Amino acid sequence: MPEIAVWSGDTVRMDEEGFLYFISRRDEMIKTSGYRVSPTEVEEVIYATGLVGEAAALGIAHPVLGQAIVVVATDPANGRLDTDELLVQCRQRLPAFMVPSRVIVSKASLPRNPNGKIDRKRLGQEFQGLFEGAA
C-alpha cells in the first residue's frame, strides 16, 4: 500500500469508492463536531459544580454531530439534581463543543465495572439509540 495508516482508535467502514465513515470509538474519547473530547474533562467540571452525586460523560451516536455528549448523573446527597442549572454551569465553564447535549438523571447508582469504575460502556449501550431520528 502506498498510503500511510495512522491508529486513531476509531472504528470505520469503507464504501465501494474507498471513503471511510466513522462508526464508533474504541477508547473512551468522544468525537463530536470534529473535536476529540475527554469524558474525564467534562466530568471534572460537572463534579466541581457540586450539583451531582455521581456522573459519567458518554459519547452517544448522533446523525449530525458524530457523537453527542450525554451526561448520566445521580442526585447529590443533599437534594435533587437541577439539570437546567447544571447545563448553565457547564456553559459557563466549558467550551461550547464540550457542553453536554443532554443530562439524564439516574435514580439508581451508576453501574460499575469489576475495577470499581463507572461502566461507561454499559451506560453507552443503554442509551445508544437516544438520538435516532434526530437531525
Describe this structure as you would to a colleague:
- The protein is an alpha+beta fold and 135 residues long.
- The chain has a single domain, classed as GMP Synthetase, Chain A, domain 3 (2-Layer Sandwich).
- The protein is built from three helices and seven strands; from the N terminus they run ββββαββαβα.
- It has helices at residues 39-49, 83-93, 120-126; strands at 10-14, 20-25, 30-32, 35-37, 55-62, 66-74, 102-106.
- It has a three-stranded mixed sheet with strand order 5-6-7, sandwiched between helices. The protein has a two-stranded antiparallel ribbon with strand order 1-2. It has a two-stranded antiparallel sheet with strand order 3-4.
- Helix 1 crosses helix 2 (83-93).
- It is elongated and about 60 Å long.
- The model has no long low-confidence stretch (mean pLDDT 89).
- Number of contiguous helices: 3
How would a crystallographer describe the biggest sheet? Answer: 3 strands, mixed
Number of DSSP strand runs: 7
Give the strand order of the largest sheet, numbering strands 1, 2, ... along the chain.
5-6-7
Structural class: alpha+beta
Approximate strand percentage = 25-35%
Identify low-pLDDT runs: none
Which quaternary structure do these chains form? single chain
Could you tell me the CATH topology label.
GMP Synthetase, Chain A, domain 3
Can you say what the CATH homologous superfamily is?
ANL, C-terminal domain
Rg computed from alpha carbons, rounded to a whole number of angstroms: 16 Å
In helices, the fraction of residues equals 10-25%
Shape: elongated
From the N-terminal CA to the C-terminal CA, the straight-line distance is: 37 Å
- The mean pLDDT is 89
